[in-house]
Amino acid sequence: MNTPEIYWNNLPSLIDPIVFSVGFFSVRWYSLMILVTFLIIYLLVQWRIKHDKKTTSNLPTEKVESLFIYLAIGVIVGARLGYSFFYDLSATLQNPISIISPFESGSFVGIFGLSFHGGVLGTIAGGLLFCKKNNINFLKMANFLIPTIPLGYFFGRIGNFLNGELFGRPTDSPIGMFFPLDETSSLRHPSQLYEAIGEGLILFAILWPIRNNKRMQNFLLPLYLILYSTIRFLIEFYRMPDNHLGLIFWNLSMGQVLSSLMFFVGLILLIHTKKHRQRE
Asked: What is the C-alpha end-to-end distance of the chain, expressed in Å?
């Protein structure tokens, strides 16, 4: 008799990572979930502008679409550059065109490899350009946007799970799963689901309820940086490091190193914001 654990363990094998195909063109779950992520964040931002009257927003309603174009370009470019330089530096230096070229040795291989932390840097760059062009205070706008973002992460990580990628380290736990892309056929932690819950639902549950608290509004950005990096750092102990990198030093993954830097940036920004408020 099949037990619920059998279905759970083999669930990734039952999911087709391709949503649909038209000729050589295929749409995968992760790509679809990225679009859902932007849509969720966009709708939450629009909702905040219309309904959160107690929160002062310096973002005009008619500028939201323009902002998201800047952010979308920033996150895609940043995520790709981040992966190329943080996770694949040697190959990038040998063949810089690989950053944007879908061909390798004359064969079509597509463009793969995105970095969350690179995406954050790209988003910041896109936001800064938008704010400079429209004479908007960046930190004020960022603190307004931050509570809407974690819910989008939930769908992004679910996309990773449906694609069967970024799976976790080996485990003997009943919660372990078999992932088709794992050549060792070992039970693995479904770390994508851990991240969906931690980086997505839990972080959203913390930031969203305090979004209108006047004492917290200027602290939402540093709080997000500190909380996200802490959650990501801990979950990385269950996530499989990139095969070509492994654990780089102190038995930490690249994701943990970058999250540590993110944590200290958030801490510095928190201290600076607190001192600025005390001066006021």
From this structure: 69
The residues near 12 (Cβ < 8 Å, ≥ 6 apart) are: 161, 164, 167, 177, 178, 179, 180, 190
**Closest among 209, 221, 220, 214 to 55, alpha carbons compared:** 214
User: Is residue 196 exposed (0-12), middle (13-18) or buried (19+ Cβ within 10 Å)?
Assistant: buried
- Looking up tokens 């979950």 gives 235
Tell me: pLDDT of 53 over 80: no
DSSP 239: B
Q: How confident is the model at residue 191 (pLDDT cuts 50, 70, 90)?
A: very high
Sequence-distant contacts of 205-210: CB under 8 A, at least 24 apart: 207/146, 207/147, 207/150, 208/147, 208/148, 208/150, 208/151, 210/147
Least confident of 6-15, 41-50, 89-98: 89-98
Tell me the H-state helices in 135-189.
138-145, 149-163
Beta strands in 64-142 (DSSP E): 103-104, 107-108
pTM: 0.89
Average pLDDT over all residues of the chain: 88
Instruction: Please say if the pLDDT value at position 86 is more than 80.
Output: yes
Which residue(s) pair with 18 in the sheet? 28
Give yes or no for a contact between 188 and 171, defined as CB atoms under 8 angstroms apart.
yes
Kindly tell me if the per-residue pLDDT of 1 is higher than 50: no
pLDDT at 197: 97
Fill in the DSSP letter of residue 249.
B
Q: Confirm if 179 and 167 have CB atoms less than 8 A apart.
A: yes
Q: Say what the pLDDT of residue 22 is.
A: 78
CA angle (114 as vertex; 33, 66 as ends), nearest 5: 60
Distance separating alpha carbons of residues 55 and 44, to the nearest angstrom: 14
d(CA 180, CA 72): 31
